[in-house]
């Protein structure tokens, strides 16, 4: 009897769900399946085309599909300015790309991602020099590194003012005990380091990109999700009914389109000036059609009348 009651309750719950709730559940389940498929495929099978191990002293990219690391020198794609330990990119090797060509896309980096990359490179440089530092000064080391390598770290244009220093400080403080560790040094001031000093773990979070819808798992492998057209940015100006063209001074509508002219190349109507008078041609237009016919007709009609008037 209790089993029948439980079964009826489940039927009532499923029947009470709206179509929107069902669609959301189906979307969540599909994303979960895609993530599980990706995690099953996330098995290390060697690195790079050359088969050599990782080298933390050079730029390496992680393929979103086969999860193998590839050296910059082995990649044929023109990558542009980069630094090691980037996390704001999507890369597909030529073995995983549907076109057979490598694809690479660097996105706008968040401030905490830039800080992770900066501290990781400072730590690797210190390890190579033999000092083995793990804590670095925000004002003397982290911010100067970000300023020097700005174009390589993000696609955002370089800041003109130094107000972004405050943003860096907020990002570091916000993720203390999550991503960063903090130490107050008597001479160097605020010092920050990575909570996980193993630099081999720094990589793009492709799983989060799949869950967020930026990437999609298909039978052909990982693919970019195309951005739908018509999406307006925050700075896009709203248009209202009746707006024509761009707005010039004093709110006048400026038509940016080129006026269409007839085949003979001159406008059919003459323009007006500001006083309301129409401009007329001071001399005959040599390009006007049927000009000779008009002149002949004028001579035939007007000259006899003038002769009759004089006589």
Q: Largest sheet, order of strands side by side?
A: 5-7-6
Count of alpha/pi helices: 8
From the alpha carbons, calculate the radius of gyration and give it in angstroms: 35 Å
Determine the mean pLDDT: 76
CATH-assigned fold name of the domain at 60-224: DNA primase DNAg catalytic core, N-terminal domain
- Elements, N to C (H/E): HHEEEEHEHHHEEHEEEEH
**What overall form do the CA principal axes indicate?**
extended
CATH architecture of the domain at 60-224: Alpha-Beta Complex
Parts with pLDDT < 50 across at least 5 consecutive residues:
1-12, 37-44, 306-311
Specify the biggest β-sheet. 3 strands, antiparallel
Strand-residue fraction? Answer: 5-15%
How many beta-strand elements?
A: 11
Task: Summarize the amount of helix as a percent range.
Answer: 25-40%
What class would the helix/strand composition place it in?
Answer: alpha+beta
Given this structure, which CATH class of the domain at 60-224 is correct? Alpha Beta
């Amino acid at each position: 009897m209790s089993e029948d009651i439980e079964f009826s309750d489940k039927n009532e719950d499923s029947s009470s769900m709206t179509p929107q709730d069902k669609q959301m559940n189906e979307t969540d389940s599909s994303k979960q399946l895609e993530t599980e498929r990706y995690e099953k495929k996330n098995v290390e099978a060697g690195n790079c085309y050359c088969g050599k191990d990782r080298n933390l002293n050079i730029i390496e990219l992680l393929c979103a599909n086969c999860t193998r690391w590839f050296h910059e020198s082995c990649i044929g794609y023109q990558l542009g300015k980069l630094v090691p330990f980037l996390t704001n990119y999507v890369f597909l090797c030529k073995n995983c790309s549907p076109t057979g060509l490598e694809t690479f896309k660097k996105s706008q980096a968040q401030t905490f991602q830039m800080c992770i990359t900066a501290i990781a490179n400072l730590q690797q440089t210190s390890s190579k020099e033999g000092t083995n530092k793990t804590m670095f000064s925000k004002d003397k080391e982290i911010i100067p590194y970000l300023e020097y390598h700005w174009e390589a770290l993000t696609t955002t244009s370089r800041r003109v003012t130094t107000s972004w220093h405050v943003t860096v400080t907020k990002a570091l403080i916000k993720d203390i005990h999550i991503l960063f560790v903090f130490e107050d040094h008597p001479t160097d001031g605020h010092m920050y380091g990575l909570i996980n000093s193993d630099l081999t773990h720094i990589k793009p979070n492709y799983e989060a990109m799949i869950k967020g819808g930026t990437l999609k798992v298909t039978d052909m492998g990982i693919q970019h999700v195309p951005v739908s057209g018509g999406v307006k940015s925050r700075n896009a100006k709203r248009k209202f009914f009746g707006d024509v063209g761009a707005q010039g001074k004093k709110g006048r509508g400026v038509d940016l389109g080129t006026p269409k002219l007839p085949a003979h190349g001159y406008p059919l109507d003459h323009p007006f000036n500001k006083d309301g008078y129409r401009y007329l041609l001071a001399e005959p237009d040599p390009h006007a059609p049927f000009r000779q016919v008009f002149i002949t007709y004028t001579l035939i009609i007007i000259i006899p009348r003038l002769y009759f008037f004089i006589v």
